[in-house]
Specification:
155 residues, alpha+beta, Thiol Ester Dehydrase, Chain A, 6-stranded antiparallel β-sheet, 3 helices, 6 strands, globular
Length: 155
C-alpha cells in the first residue's frame, strides 16, 4: 500500500502546476515547511527530491541561504522519502540530524534523499542521507537524518 503522501504525488506530480500544488498541500499539513516555499520534484519509494529558491526571507546576514532554511529542506525530503518508502504497517519520526556545510549556499538549491532498505515490522533507526546541491551542481550541504521507524500499534 502506498502512503497518502506518495499517492497524492502520483496524482499531482506530472506537471509543474501539480508539483507546486502538492508542495502547498504538504506545507498546509506541516506549516513550518512553508517558510522555504519548496517545490517537490520527485517522490517515490527510495528517493525524494525537492528544491527551494534563495529569497530574502531565507537569507542570513551575509546574503546566502540560512543554514536552518537548508535544514528545513533536508528534513522535508528525508521525511517525504521515508514516508513514501515505508510499508503501511510502519510509522516514522525524525530523531536527529547531522549536517555538514561544505560551501556557501546561494540561488536555487535542490535536495535529494536516498532512502535505505527498511526492515518491515522491526523498530529501527533509519539513517537517511541527503545531499543539497546548488545550480552549478556543487554539493553545498551533506546531511544525515536519523528516523525512528516502528510498527504501527494494532487496533
Amino acid at each position: 500500500m502506498t502512503s497518502a503522501a506518495a499517492s497524492a504525488f502520483e496524482r499531482l506530480g506530472g506537471s509543474a502546476l501539480g508539483r507546486w500544488l502538492y508542495a502547498r498541500l504538504v506545507c498546509w499539513r506541516a506549516p513550518y515547511f512553508g517558510s522555504i516555499r519548496p517545490t517537490v520534484l520527485r517522490l517515490e519509494p527510495g528517493v525524494a527530491i525537492a528544491r527551494m529558491d534563495q529569497r530574502r526571507a531565507v537569507q542570513n546576514h551575509i546574503g546566502t541561504v540560512h543554514a536552518i532554511a537548508i535544514c528545513n529542506l533536508v528534513e522535508l525530503v528525508a521525511g517525504l522519502g521515508t514516508d513514501a518508502s515505508l510499508p503501511a504497517s510502519m510509522r516514522w519520526l525524525p530523531k536527529g540530524m547531522t549536517v555538514s556545510y561544505l560551501r556557501k549556499a546561494t540561488g536555487r538549491l535542490t535536495a535529494m534523499a536516498r532512502i535505505p532498505g527498511i526492515r518491515p515490522g522491526e523498530a529501527q533507526d533509519l539513517v537517511v542521507p541527503v545531499d543539497v546541491r546548488n545550480e552549478s551542481d556543487e554539493t553545498v550541504v551533506r546531511a544525515e537524518v536519523t528516523m525512528w521507524v516502528t510498527p504501527r500499534p494494532l487496533g
